[in-house]
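Technical annex B. To support the medicinal chemistry partners, we prepared a structural model of the target in complex with magnesium ion, based solely on the information shown next.
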Amino acid sequence: MDKGLIKELANYVHQAEKDKREITKITSELYPDLSIDDAYLVQEELIQQKLEEGHKIIGPKMGITSEAKMKQMNVDDPIYGYVFDYMIEKENDSISVSDYIHPKVEPEIGFILSRDLEGPNITALDVLAATEYVFPAIEIIDSRYENFNFTLPDVIADNTSAAGAVFGKTIRRPESLELDVVGVTLSVNGEIRSLGAGAAVLSHPANSVARLANMLSKKGQKVKAGQPIMTGGITAAVRIESGDFINVKYGGLGNVSFSVKE
Ligand code: OOG
Ligand code: MG
C-alpha cells in the first residue's frame, strides 16, 4: 500500500479520536480494499503519530478473543492494538463520558511477564511459565466508527477501539488461580449486565498472550516483560452512560469499580 495512503488513513482515524467524533468506516468508501496486513500498517503509522506527540505505550491489548465478542461485533479473528498512557483511568474514580464518543466497557484479565516472549510457537504453558502476575482490568473501548460498526481491517486500523483502561490493584501469581474458571460479573448500578469465565478467552487467557507473541513475531516484535497485557473482553461489551456505577467482580482476583459522569 502506498505510504501516502497509509498516512491519510491513519490521520483519518487519529483526527476522529481527537475530535471525539464518529466517522464512516474506511472500507465503506475511502478504501474498500483495505486488507488485514494493510490495516496493521495503518495502525503502525497511527501508533507512530501518537508516540511523536509524546504519548507513551503502556502495553499491548488483544481483542476479539471470545465468542461473545465475535458475535457482538460480527468479526471473528483475534486482533491486537496498544493501550497508551493517556488512556489510563483510575480505579474508584469517575470517568467523563464527554472524553469519549460512545464508550463501552468489558471485563478482562491482564498479565505481566517477568521475561520477554518471542514467537513463533509460543504456547500457553510458555506464557504461564513467564508470567510474573495476573490482574483484573476493565477496558473502555470507543470505536471511532459510526455505531461501532466495522470490518476486521477497519478496527485494526483504529487501534482496536482502544480508548481507556482501568487496572485493578489485586495481583496474583498465575498458578494460584485456575484462570480458565475464574468467573466474572459486570454490573451497572448494581444489576448484572454480563457474566462469563476466563475460558471464554481462547479457552484460557494465557492462550491470548501466546497468540499475541506469535502474531507479533511476524513483525519481528515480541511481548515485553513488565508491560501490562490485556487479553480481551471475556463478555460482550456494555454501553456506559453518565450516572452509571460500574463494578466488575472476579473470582479470586478482587474487583474493579468506577463511576461515570458527564
Ligand atoms: C474492538 C476491540 C475488541 C476486545 O477485548 O475484544 C476488544 C471492539 O469491540 O470495538 O478490545
Ligand atoms: Mg478489549
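Notes passed to the chemistry partners:
Residues 209 and 231 are 6 Å apart (CA to CA).
The longest helix spans residues 3-19.
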